[in-house]
Design a protein that fits this description.
Layout: E1 3-7, E2 10-13, E3 18-25, E4 33-39, E5 46-51, E6 58-60, E7 68-73, E8 78-83, E9 92-99, E10 112-113, E11 117-122
Parallel strand pairs: 2-11
Antiparallel strand pairs: 1-3, 3-8, 4-5, 4-9, 5-6, 7-8, 9-10, 9-11
């Protein structure tokens, strides 16, 4: 069992930055790939980024490449999402998730989810 708690969301102007954190409980954190997803009002949950269990491999959705960076610290059981050059279109609730399916970009590939943190980007 893995419990996930996100933090770091907030209100920021377009062009600004935020750093999201996701703290995991449990001893098996470093067995899981970790993903960030987001969901805007009236839209489906969409993949943002994923990092492998070791941290060696990452995947990003095209619209955030070059702006967002996913990282993890297995000693602290924490995964991060550094978001730069934020755009109003990035406004959503951001969720972190833990999954054992390799390289999954679908929500169904993840077994555990956090409660989400709101990110609002004003124009």
């Amino acid at each position: 069992q893995v419990q996930l708690v996100e933090s770091g969301g907030g209100l920021v102007q377009a062009g600004g930055s935020l750093r999201l954190s996701c703290a995991a409980s449990g001893r098996t954190f470093n067995n899981y790939g970790m993903g960030w997803f987001r969901q805007a009002p009236g839209k489906e949950r969409e993949f943002v980024a994923r990092i492998s269990s070791s941290g060696a491999n990452t995947i990003y959705r095209d619209s955030v490449k070059g702006r967002f960076t996913i990282s993890r610290d297995n000693a602290k059981n924490t995964v991060y999402l550094q978001m730069n050059s934020l755009e109003p279109e990035d406004t959503a609730i951001y969720y972190c998730a833990a999954g054992s399916t390799p390289r999954s970009v679908a929500p169904t590939g993840y077994d555990y989810w956090g409660q989400g943190t709101q990110v609002t980007v004003s124009s």
